[in-house]
């Protein structure tokens, strides 16, 4: 369409439109969309120039004036990134994106400038974009059925694919990709298939139910993309889409190969990196990838290390990146995630407080902050955070999750479940909501519902140790320790550094049905070595050794537990029990001076233990004088 002072419909448009008034209105809408696109081209072009990480990891890169003189450098900035581009005087078709200075030699990747593509001004293409924006993916794919341009191919196939799986949020990101991308025809086909798959899921099981519905468009999309790849005319975005299709069909090895080709050719498509990450389930698989040494690879490795539960390695990588991207809120949030996995809650809280000072309307990752506030039982802080996100955007899954955490802390479990279900209606693959909803059902003693919620979480991410742990808790409540033990073992395998999981497994071994005390002792020992914050393991180890008649080991752990309670200035029945045992133990060992010390401390307590201490002191004095 041409943009003129008086908006008219082209002859090509009149040929394509039906004679009905309704179709004419659609073409006018398409034309207006085209005008808007034309007016905003100067804004879209810098965004389209690099499909970077959707969070702010590129903020604050300082320009090296010695390498890129100002006369050849332009800074392009949007809400999340600052990018440096310079045009070669010899070749006007390429743009070289400069490499951040971080002490490592990275490849500098050529990026094709936006070419004058015949698809862009094509009436079919503009109409398909309008249909796509309205989420009418099959109509978009149908309009582009006979178009052969690269953008038309990408949009058609991707629309057919996305007809089902992705929700509105993902579709907005996909729209950015397709505006930037070079294969539009495939885009529509994918969109349509995924939308129909979602409809079948809802028809069969409801909006939160499970279903075996599949995307019926995958075969045709794979055939089209395989042919384009074979003749060598596929671009990085086509490869990304091809990798999605292969992954959906279960061909993970080939999907990895194709996605590696995509990110090597165009490293700034973070969506491709994330899909590749989901296919790296072991460190060996990750190390086998033949990736170019680009700085986006560092972001990928840091994120993948976190998913592989290599939290220290992930934290080190993010801290290394922070030296270059010092102002990046994304990196700060990822560091907080790594610290959260290491259970450094004080550090996590400090980072999120800083993020909220910088960006008070931030919602991304704030659900994790709410988990920290919940664990610390900080009701006022959680209340404030819930109010903030509610006023900012109450229809974000993260907002619903935060509000659900607030009501859970208040003991209103039914209302908490309501908000977790609302989060899942917005995004049914929102892992945290399934897990936290399972926790609420456990609190409500609704174990069948809890088991279902935890199983849905495991289906989404089999590496979520919290869901496995929740399943173990649910089966333990139902008096099925063998099942509980099976799930606790899975959770411990995924998170061996969490003392709570070892303690839960030890409880199973202690039950009357199992009564495997030696195994329980091993679990409590592991928990004690994993920074047992709740101070449960030492006391349980002392009790079990006492029950097994192993007095020396029991005394060792009672003494260690007593020292910890003194450091933390805790009083209670555990301290009385430890003092009583140690007094009797040292008396039996004829170490009267030590026994007298513990007896004297027992005299400070009121109750039967005081009388017991007096009796022990008398016996000790008689033994010291040599009288029987």
Automatic annotation (TrEMBL):
Pfam families per record: ANAPC8, TPR_10, TPR_11, TPR_8
Protein's UniProt keywords contain Protein biosynthesis: no
PROSITE patterns to which the protein is assigned, alphabetical: TPR
Family annotation (InterPro entries): APC8, TPR-like_helical_dom_sf, TPR_rpt
Keywords assigned: Cell cycle, Cell division, Mitosis, Repeat, TPR repeat, Ubl conjugation pathway
UniProt cross-references to Gene3D superfamilies, sorted A to Z: Tetratricopeptide repeat domain (1.25.40.10)
Domain (Cdc23): residue spans on this chain: 56-162, 185-336
Superkingdom: Eukaryota
GO biological process: anaphase-promoting complex-dependent catabolic process; cell division; positive regulation of mitotic metaphase/anaphase transition; protein ubiquitination
Coiled coil, from the record: none
GO cellular component: anaphase-promoting complex
TPR repeat segments: 431-464, 465-498
Record bears the keyword Transferase: no
Name recorded for this polypeptide: Cdc23 domain-containing protein
Species of origin: Ambrosia artemisiifolia
Lineage, opening ranks: Eukaryota, Viridiplantae, Streptophyta, Embryophyta, Tracheophyta
């Amino acid at each position: 369409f041409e943009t003129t002072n008086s908006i008219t419909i082209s002859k090509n448009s009149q040929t394509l439109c039906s004679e009905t008034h309704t179709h004419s209105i659609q073409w006018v809408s398409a034309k207006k969309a085209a005008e808007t696109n034309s007016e905003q081209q100067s804004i879209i072009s810098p965004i389209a120039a690099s499909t970077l990480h959707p969070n702010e990891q590129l903020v604050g890169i300082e320009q090296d004036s010695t390498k890129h003189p100002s006369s050849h450098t332009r800074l392009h900035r949007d809400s999340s990134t600052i990018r440096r581009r310079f045009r070669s005087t010899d070749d006007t078709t390429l743009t070289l994106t400069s490499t951040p200075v971080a002490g490592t030699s990275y490849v500098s990747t050529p990026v094709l400038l936006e070419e004058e593509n015949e698809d862009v001004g094509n009436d079919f293409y503009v109409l398909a974009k309008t249909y796509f924006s309205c989420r009418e993916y099959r109509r978009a794919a149908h309009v582009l059925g006979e178009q052969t341009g690269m953008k038309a191919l990408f949009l058609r196939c991707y629309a057919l694919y996305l007809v089902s799986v992705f929700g509105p949020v993902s579709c907005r990101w996909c729209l950015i990709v397709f505006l930037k991308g070079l294969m539009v025809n495939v885009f529509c086909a994918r969109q349509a298939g995924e939308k129909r798959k979602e409809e079948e899921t809802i028809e069969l099981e409801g909006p939160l139910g499970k279903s075996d519905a599949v995307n019926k468009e995958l075969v045709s999309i794979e055939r089209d993309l395989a042919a384009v790849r074979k003749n060598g005319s596929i671009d990085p975005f086509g490869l990304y889409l091809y990798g999605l299709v292969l992954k959906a069909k279960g061909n993970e090895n080939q999907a990895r190969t194709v996605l590696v080709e995509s990110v090597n050719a165009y490293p700034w498509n973070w969506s491709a990196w994330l899909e590749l990450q989901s296919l790296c389930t072991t460190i060996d698989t990750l190390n086998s990838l033949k990736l170019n040494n680009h700085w986006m690879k560092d972001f990928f490795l840091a994120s993948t290390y976190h998913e592989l539960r290599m939290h220290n390695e992930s934290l080190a990588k993010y801290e290394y990146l922070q030296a270059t991207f010092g102002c990046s809120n994304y990196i700060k949030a990822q560091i907080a995630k790594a610290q959260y996995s290491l259970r450094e809650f004080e550090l996590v809280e400090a980072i999120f407080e800083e993020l909220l000072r910088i960006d008070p309307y931030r919602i991304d990752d704030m659900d994790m902050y709410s988990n920290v506030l919940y664990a610390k039982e900080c009701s006022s802080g959680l209340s404030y955070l819930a109010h903030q996100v509610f006023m900012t955007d109450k229809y974000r899954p993260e907002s619903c999750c935060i509000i659900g955490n607030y009501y859970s802390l208040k003991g209103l479990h039914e209302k908490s479940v309501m908000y977790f279900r609302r989060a899942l209606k917005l995004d049914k693959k929102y892992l945290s909501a399934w897990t936290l909803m399972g926790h609420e059902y456990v609190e409500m003693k609704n174990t069948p519902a809890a088991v279902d919620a935890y199983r849905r979480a495991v289906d989404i991410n089999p590496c979520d140790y919290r869901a496995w742990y929740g399943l173990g808790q649910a089966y333990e409540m139902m008096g099925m320790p063998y099942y509980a033990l099976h799930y606790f073992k899975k959770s411990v395998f995924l998170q061996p550094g969490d003392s709570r999981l070892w303690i839960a497994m030890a409880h199973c071994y202690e039950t009357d049905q199992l009564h495997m005390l030696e195994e329980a002792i091993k679990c409590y020992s592991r928990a004690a070595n994993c920074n047992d914050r709740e101070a449960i393991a030492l006391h349980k180890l002392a009790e079990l050794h006492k029950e097994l008649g192993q007095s020396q080991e029991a005394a060792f752990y009672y003494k260690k537990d007593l020292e910890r309670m003194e450091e933390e200035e805790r009083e209670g029945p555990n301290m009385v029990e430890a003092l009583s045992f140690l007094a009797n133990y040292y008396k039996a060992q004829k170490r009267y001076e030590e026994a007298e010390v513990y007896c004297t401390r027992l005299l400070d307590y009121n109750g039967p233990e005081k009388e017991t201490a007096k009796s022990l002191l008398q016996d000790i004095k008689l033994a010291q004088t040599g009288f029987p």
